[in-house]
Sequence to fold (140 residues):
Amino acid sequence: MNQFGDWKSNLDRFFGNDFWGEFEGMMKPAIPQLNLYQYEDELVCIANLPGMDHPKNVDVFVDHTTLTLKGKIEINQRGGRLLKNEIANGSFERTIDLPFPVKSDKIDASYKHGLLIVQLHRHVSEPNREKSVHVRYLEE
Fold:
């Protein structure tokens, strides 16, 4: 293990102290982790948010073809020295592209046992349906 520390120190001296920071984003998983399920006219997104104590700590935004999750996970462990840090902690934001446009007025979201479940419904347009427009007669 000590050899790894020496190797890292040598690379830091050669490439500079910010060398590892550029790789860190590529190696970390996207937060929150999620599954997206597609049905005929519906999408269900299940996001893994362990440690989030209340759904008020997450905001869900839908913009026609994107879903954005923003929030904060706080692990309030006081004292002691952190030896391993694998659980996401702090603020997060994740935006994903949806496979089809969704309705902005028909969205359901729930949170239970560390999972955020967002149900979205396909926006169905009727491109070939003509809509009659009433023409008002204005007298002079």
Summary: The chain has two domains: 1-29, 31-122.
